[in-house]
Amino acid sequence: MGEAKFSQEPIDLNIPDNYVAWTLKHQKPLPPITWSNWWKELNTLSVAILILVPVISIYGVLNVPLCWQTAVWSFLYYFITGIGITAGYHRLWAHRSYNAARPLEYFLAMAGTGAVQGSIRWWSRGHRAHHRYTDTDLDPYDARRGFWYSHIGWMIFKPRIKPGVADVSDLSKSHVVRWQHRWYLQLIIGMGFILPTVVAGLGWGDWRGGFFYAGAARLCVVHHSTFCVNSLAHWIGETPFDDKHTPKDSFITALVTVGEGYHNFHHQFPVDYRNAIKWYQYDPTKWFIWACSKLGLARQLKTFPDNEVRKGQLTMQLKRLRETQESLKFAPDPNELPVISWESFQEQSAKRALVLIAGFIHDVSSFIDEHPGGRHLIAKHIGKDATTAFFGGVYDHSNAAHNWLSMMRVGVLSGGMQHGLDDKSVPPSQRLRIARYSELCLNSASTSWSEDEGILG
Predict the structure, then answer these.
(1) What pTM does this model have?
(2) For the chain, which terminus, N or C, has the lower number of CB atoms within 10 Å?
(3) Domain that holds residue 394
(4) Does residue 322 form part of some domain?
(5) Is the pLDDT assigned to residue 123 strictly greater than 90?
């Protein structure tokens, strides 16, 4: 493959601020794929690779015995070429999450080439577009179009809309990227098939096993392992940092993708060299990069500030608590309760079991026989103020008791409550409340602005 023209001027330098909307408005999409034209819309090279590699693998599995040395080598080479994509193509070149010494760059470039997924420059351009336009029509492997589209469909058929612009001018300055792009065809043959075959052949005489297992079968597995980052990582798992987009965190996906499964974190903090931030989470790519840093082969490992990471986690925790909060029933709003005089309270208490506690009138008719302390303790306070007894005079009631009692409120005593009981009027379940920004009582007169000239600090 000849060396393409590498521009060092950012391709997105002069795009409009409303680029996504502008592009969708002015770009004419290709005709929809139908039964009459589907064969014209195929990406021939991608289809050939995606079909031939599994066919060769299946033939080998059915006709060539697998010896244990070849099995070990196949797994090892799968891991090496997988690392070439995850630590090289992805975290080094696409996201620039660390700097690598020249020997490590060459190793990752060749290992990544063995995964046969395009050149570093081509792969990084598509991946940067994916991050910039996640879950939009300009996302090259838009997960909203379905699992199989994001897995392999985007490679099989020509895109209906050209993927959004993404700058890779920085990669044009890399000697290793330019070298790999220039010799890419020779490298995929050598690293994809010749090297795994020669190692098995010279090592233990299994030339055929080396080709079919360490070459073809290994390539088929590493293909779909990587493809799962675009598909599976957007479909299963949790969203501990943000649920605005489809990426999710999943241990299962991490196992399948050499550690790229904590995708929700990654899309929130793409410059971080880690995919998993906890020590026990499976991320061999992170461990590989860290080990290389200890050997002097990697440096300037980027991590997002822990304070900002925890903000993301807190936001989602609060959001889920808010959802739980909204699904529960709480005490009636005091402003919506009737105001009752002391005389009226006592008069109505003769007809039903009403008890006054902390300025609120409670109808305990349905609970009086269920009271754990016995009916008599409530009965003797009907028509009376039981505040002292309830708040520790007889028994210092639990949070559950306070919450349950608040649900029995039917009125407010005229004249308010006794001084010092303000904090007791709010049940424990409502003392810590998740409120939206729009619900907060904001002071319109801000003290953060004045007409005097100041200094930004």
Answers:
(1) 0.86
(2) C
(3) 335-435
(4) no
(5) yes
